[in-house]
Design goal:
The strands form two sheets. This protein has a five-stranded antiparallel β-sheet, covered by helices on one side. About 20% of the residues lie in helices and about 50% in strands. It is elongated, with a radius of gyration of 19 Å. With about 130 residues, the protein is of the alpha+beta class.
């Protein structure tokens, strides 16, 4: 029993000592809003985010490509009727920026290219992210 208590105490202590930073960047274009969030520890980087359509037309098809200093991510979707928000989901890697300042620089260099189709045509928009 004593070993279990010591093990639990050690796990709690290690969890409490792990340092996590959360950094949020946003961007806005003519018809889209975007956000990207980094959650980083000393060894891991998780990213999540999404986009929101602010136009009036119904979306038929959307593709997006996010480019950061750490790499990129992208996706494509056929939105549901009246759907205007799209989540990137959660991604990650084990090669985070070394410091919070480097992560901020990376996010300030990040862009997203969005291409979409409506009943009236095909469009595209490039948005730059900026840390808030």
């Amino acid at each position: 029993m004593r070993k279990i208590v010591i093990l639990l105490f050690t796990m709690i202590l290690l969890t409490a000592c792990s340092h996590q930073e959360t950094i949020k960047a946003t961007g806005e274009g003519d018809l889209w809003k975007a956000h990207l969030i980094y959650e980083m520890t000393d060894t891991d980087l998780l990213n999540r985010g999404g986009i929101e359509y602010t136009g009036d037309e119904e979306l038929l098809y959307v593709t997006y490509t996010v480019v950061t200093d750490e790499g990129g991510l992208g996706g494509e979707i056929e939105p549901q009727e009246e759907q205007t928000a799209i989540s990137f989901g959660t991604g990650g890697g084990n090669n985070p920026p070394a410091t919070k300042d480097e992560a901020i620089i990376s996010l300030n260099h990040a862009t997203i290219e969005i291409k979409w189709r409506t009943n009236t045509g095909e469009y595209e928009e490039l948005i730059n992210f900026k840390v808030n």
